Amino acid sequence: MHAKARRSARRRTAIVGAAVAVIVAGFAVRLVDIQVVNAQEHLDNRAAYSGIGFSQVLSGTRGSIVDGEGTVLASSTTQYSAQFDPVHVKDIEHVDEDGREYTVTWEESAADIGEIVGRSGDEVQAIVADALAADAASQYALLADDLTTQQYRELTALGLPYLSFHPVQSRAYPYGAVAGNLIGFVGDDGEPLAGYEAAENTCLQATDGSLTYQQGSDGLIIPGTEVTEAPVDGGTLQLTLDADLQWYMQQMIAEETQNQQAQAGAVMVVEVATGAVRAAAEYPTVDPNDPTAVDADDRGSRIFSRTFEPGSTFKAVTAATLLDQGAATPYTSVTASGHEAFPNGAVVGDSFQHAAFNYTLTGALIDSSNVALSKFGELVPDETRYEYLQKFGVGTKTDIGFPGEEPGLIYPPDQWGAQGHYATTFGQAFTTTMPQVVNAYQTLANDGVREPLHIVESCTKPDGTVTKPELSEPRRVVSEEAADTTIRLLENVATQGSLAPAVAVDGYRIGTKTGTAQKSDGHGGYKAGLYFTSIIGVVPADDPQYIVMVTLDEPTRVTSSAATAPALQKAVTQVVKNYRVMPSEKTEEPLPKFAE
């Protein structure tokens, strides 16, 4: 080829290449304009022409409630509902990997759907046919509302544009009524209604996400229009409870409440060193899986909402006050008979008639003498006793902060009156809750340091963030010597008192004190022969590790606090077994009940 011809060929090739480059560049600019610069405008125009926008909620999962060992007490499961858009149900055109077109008929799709959900293809077709018969423009017909995650995945894999899905949250309580009064429950709409489900909703509540997209007139999602905002699951709420111990205590207190023909019963177990509540069981109780099966009054927790005069259990607080003030020792004595009138006009009586005894402080607690405690109480001013009662927690809610928890009530000394001046020494003329009494004994058993009671251990969010409840700082209430001496007095009550055989636990030294509170008749007086009874134990007395308290409301088989003794013995026995508490190695010499 001549050189001139070759130059001409190269020139033509260059011109053609330049033209092609200009065309490609033009397409590229237009593509950027469509997909980037004016993408939303084009999508909006397309949607206006061939479809509309849709939004779907993506539900997060409500967090679980677990016990101290991680045992699940409440959890959420997700099921799915599936709905047809009947007006858009039709045969679906597909293209396989080799580019060949093929059709999946509605009859074939119905058969596939039926195989997944456990129905025949004809039954599935009938759902759509019935909906269209009722409304030719129907866009809703329910296929199922209880699909498992596996069924949901198999159905979505079919890629049917006329089938949509919505998650349905379901709350389950695998331990049933165990801790039901504390855990609470949720409504049919998933809203928390009681207990820690409501109180700790900030921890447990999930944050929903969303899926938005535009759908063409053929029912298919327009590619590139999907926008997903991921849901955030709720956190895990860990409680201090021991599910196994809680289960035992609920069975036991139900049995004892019925044995004693009482209206209600409760038992609490608290760890001395930490203030952690290991069990808080009561009867009647509620199963959160079916809360409407019981009366509304039984769906909460009487442990926290019921107030009562603690009675003789608070004689230990009077003794600790005297010991801490240096006003008495275990051997200090007063002379007290079974019934006495005091100079200010007050009249005080013991639960049994007796002649004048020269009681030691130890003996006053052993016989639970109201008269003797009244005289011991006068060894310190009323203002001092009032301050100690407050420091022990009377009149203030515990750190547990359970919904509906009451603070109790105590008046200042200038409002005590003649009778209250003495009654406050033996646990009357003020009210407490069960946790307040337990906290007072936890203080005595913990060398005089009051640890805040708590049931919530922590909240762990899905990202691993752990938050702890805000609790009061531990507080010294009485000296270590005063606290330890008071526990020794309580041990003498357990070994020398009238209930000694009924509360004894082989191999263990324990300290106990009973309480029998009169109940208001609602008309300014008290119910005749009916009481709110209680008993509290410290175990082991030589190395206090647990506080156990039992209450019975209006027992009628045995009306006094003796009704609670069998329950305490069973509860303490289970606690030392459950936590493998070592038996006591030796016993202390008994303290004298009377002065020589």
TrEMBL record:
One GO BP annotation is: cell wall organization
GO cellular component annotations, sorted alphabetically? plasma membrane
What keywords sit in the KW lines? Answer: Membrane
Gene Ontology molecular function: penicillin binding
Domain named Penicillin-binding protein transpeptidase: which ranges? 265-569
Classification via SUPFAM superfamilies: beta-lactamase/transpeptidase-like, Penicillin binding protein dimerisation domain
Q: Which InterPro entries match?
A: Beta-lactam/transpept, Beta-lactam/transpept-like, PBP_dimer, PBP_dimer_sf, PCN-bd_Tpept
Instruction: Offer one Pfam family short name for this entry.
Output: PBP_dimer
Q: Which family does it belong to?
A: Belongs to the transpeptidase family.
Name this polypeptide is given: Penicillin-binding protein 2
Q: Which organism is it from?
A: Microbacterium oryzae
